[in-house]
Amino acid sequence: MSSTARLGLFLLICLPCQLSFAADWNAISKAPPVITALQMQAKPLVVSADKTGWARIPEMLTQRGAVIYMPDGEHLGVADIQVISDGYLFIACNWDYQGNQSGDWDKDAWDERKFKTKGWDKLTKGELGGELIRNNNRVQTVFVKRVKKGDTFRLRCNKYDPPYPILLNSKP
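The structure assignment produced for this chain is given below.
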């Protein structure tokens, strides 16, 4: 097979995959779920100078008026989520070192592999249009999943920082 034919075959196979995901952002933003997150409150996901705020936010999240669930106060690194209605739920996690293993918190921690085996899709920097970074310079890995009414999740990625649920605004 010639290199031109191989390139054509590659484009035929791979290009629709890339374009179809980009087109899905509109569908995803039209279907945000309703959730509750124990001891967390929904706040607009915006850049702020606050020490617990966000230094950088990906374009796809800012364009769609994303909200992020942040801890009410002192938090133990767990996100307890209940899904009230179907939709696409995003989760932001960070696995930087946050302390030793005392308290056995690490036995409940989800890694990237566990998210994938449980049906979550990891989004790349390219798909998101940038990185999600806290003001403490912790880069977040972002996952997305279509969740159903009645689903519950108890998620942990680290000792102190919880996984952050993110919802897109259905009317950007």
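Interim note for the steering committee: The radius of gyration is 18 Å. Residues 3-29 form the longest helix (27 residues).
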